[in-house]
Amino acid sequence: MICLNGDLGSGKTTFARGFLAALGVGDEVPSPTFNLLLTYDTARGPVWHFDLYRLTAPDEVYELGIEDGFAVAICLIEWPDRLGPLLPADRLDLTLSFAAEVGADARHATLCAHGTAIDRFAELWP
After folding, report:
1. Phi and psi torsions of 6, nearest 5°
2. Domains in the chain, ordered, with CATH?
3. Contacts of 50 (CB under 8 A, 6+ apart)
4. pTM of this prediction?
5. Sign of CA dihedral 24, 68, 1, 122
6. pLDDT tens digits, 98-125
Protein backbone atom coordinates (compact mmCIF):
# COMPACT_ATOMS: atom_id res chain seq x y z
CA MET A 1 0.00 0.00 0.00
CA ILE A 2 1.43 3.33 -1.10
CA CYS A 3 -0.47 6.41 0.01
CA LEU A 4 0.22 9.42 -2.18
CA ASN A 5 -0.06 12.74 -0.36
CA GLY A 6 0.39 16.29 -1.63
CA ASP A 7 -1.38 19.35 -2.91
CA LEU A 8 -3.16 19.46 -6.27
CA GLY A 9 -0.57 19.31 -9.02
CA SER A 10 2.23 18.09 -6.77
CA GLY A 11 2.81 14.93 -8.82
CA LYS A 12 0.77 12.14 -7.25
CA THR A 13 -0.64 10.90 -10.55
CA THR A 14 2.71 11.42 -12.27
CA PHE A 15 4.32 9.19 -9.64
CA ALA A 16 1.61 6.56 -10.18
CA ARG A 17 2.23 6.65 -13.93
CA GLY A 18 5.96 6.11 -13.39
CA PHE A 19 5.32 3.33 -10.87
CA LEU A 20 3.02 1.54 -13.32
CA ALA A 21 5.45 2.04 -16.21
CA ALA A 22 8.20 0.47 -14.07
CA LEU A 23 5.90 -2.55 -13.64
CA GLY A 24 5.51 -2.83 -17.41
CA VAL A 25 2.20 -1.06 -18.00
CA GLY A 26 2.64 0.34 -21.49
CA ASP A 27 -0.87 1.68 -21.94
CA GLU A 28 -1.87 5.23 -21.17
CA VAL A 29 -2.41 5.74 -17.46
CA PRO A 30 -5.13 8.36 -17.02
CA SER A 31 -5.86 10.07 -13.75
CA PRO A 32 -8.58 8.13 -11.92
CA THR A 33 -10.13 11.37 -10.62
CA PHE A 34 -13.45 10.83 -12.40
CA ASN A 35 -13.46 7.03 -12.21
CA LEU A 36 -12.13 6.94 -8.61
CA LEU A 37 -10.50 3.57 -9.35
CA LEU A 38 -8.50 2.14 -12.23
CA THR A 39 -6.97 -1.34 -12.16
CA TYR A 40 -3.96 -2.75 -13.97
CA ASP A 41 -2.58 -6.27 -14.38
CA THR A 42 1.20 -6.43 -14.08
CA ALA A 43 3.78 -9.20 -13.87
CA ARG A 44 4.09 -8.36 -10.15
CA GLY A 45 0.36 -8.68 -9.59
CA PRO A 46 -2.67 -6.44 -9.85
CA VAL A 47 -2.38 -2.73 -9.08
CA TRP A 48 -5.42 -0.75 -7.96
CA HIS A 49 -5.03 3.01 -8.38
CA PHE A 50 -7.50 4.99 -6.27
CA ASP A 51 -8.13 8.72 -6.39
CA LEU A 52 -10.30 9.61 -3.42
CA TYR A 53 -10.36 13.39 -3.97
CA ARG A 54 -14.09 13.52 -4.69
CA LEU A 55 -15.20 11.41 -1.71
CA THR A 56 -17.19 13.18 0.96
CA ALA A 57 -17.16 10.43 3.61
CA PRO A 58 -14.75 7.57 4.37
CA ASP A 59 -17.40 4.84 4.11
CA GLU A 60 -17.93 5.69 0.41
CA VAL A 61 -14.78 3.64 -0.33
CA TYR A 62 -16.68 0.43 0.35
CA GLU A 63 -18.58 0.99 -2.92
CA LEU A 64 -15.21 0.86 -4.70
CA GLY A 65 -14.42 -2.56 -3.26
CA ILE A 66 -11.43 -1.14 -1.44
CA GLU A 67 -11.31 -4.09 0.98
CA ASP A 68 -10.80 -6.44 -1.98
CA GLY A 69 -8.04 -4.20 -3.28
CA PHE A 70 -6.32 -4.21 0.10
CA ALA A 71 -6.46 -8.02 0.12
CA VAL A 72 -5.30 -8.83 -3.42
CA ALA A 73 -3.50 -5.88 -4.99
CA ILE A 74 -0.75 -3.35 -4.77
CA CYS A 75 -2.73 -0.22 -3.89
CA LEU A 76 -1.81 3.31 -4.89
CA ILE A 77 -4.08 5.73 -3.07
CA GLU A 78 -4.23 9.41 -3.92
CA TRP A 79 -5.81 11.58 -1.22
CA PRO A 80 -5.60 8.86 1.47
CA ASP A 81 -6.69 11.36 4.13
CA ARG A 82 -10.23 10.82 2.75
CA LEU A 83 -10.11 7.34 4.32
CA GLY A 84 -10.17 8.82 7.82
CA PRO A 85 -10.24 5.98 10.35
CA LEU A 86 -10.21 3.39 7.52
CA LEU A 87 -6.60 4.26 6.61
CA PRO A 88 -4.65 1.01 7.03
CA ALA A 89 -1.92 0.96 9.66
CA ASP A 90 0.45 -0.97 7.35
CA ARG A 91 1.43 1.38 4.56
CA LEU A 92 4.07 3.53 2.93
CA ASP A 93 3.28 7.23 2.78
CA LEU A 94 4.82 9.27 -0.03
CA THR A 95 4.34 12.99 0.40
CA LEU A 96 5.17 15.24 -2.54
CA SER A 97 5.60 18.98 -2.19
CA PHE A 98 6.65 21.77 -4.50
CA ALA A 99 10.35 22.68 -4.40
CA ALA A 100 10.21 26.12 -6.00
CA GLU A 101 13.65 26.97 -4.63
CA VAL A 102 15.08 24.27 -6.91
CA GLY A 103 12.95 24.88 -10.00
CA ALA A 104 9.38 25.20 -11.23
CA ASP A 105 9.06 21.47 -11.96
CA ALA A 106 11.00 20.27 -8.89
CA ARG A 107 9.42 18.36 -6.02
CA HIS A 108 10.47 17.21 -2.57
CA ALA A 109 9.53 13.61 -1.76
CA THR A 110 9.22 12.28 1.77
CA LEU A 111 8.73 8.58 2.54
CA CYS A 112 7.34 7.34 5.84
CA ALA A 113 6.66 3.66 6.58
CA HIS A 114 3.99 2.59 9.07
CA GLY A 115 3.21 -0.72 10.74
CA THR A 116 4.60 -3.81 9.05
CA ALA A 117 5.77 -1.65 6.15
CA ILE A 118 8.58 -0.50 8.45
CA ASP A 119 10.11 -3.98 8.36
CA ARG A 120 9.61 -4.31 4.61
CA PHE A 121 11.51 -1.10 3.95
CA ALA A 122 14.01 -1.25 6.84
CA GLU A 123 16.85 -2.34 4.56
CA LEU A 124 16.39 0.88 2.56
CA TRP A 125 17.20 2.92 5.65
CA PRO A 126 20.31 1.45 7.26
Report:
1. 150, 165
2. 2-124 (3.40.50.300)
3. 32, 36, 37, 61, 64, 66, 69, 75, 76, 77, 78
4. 0.89
5. negative
6. 998 888 889 999 999 899 888 877 776 6
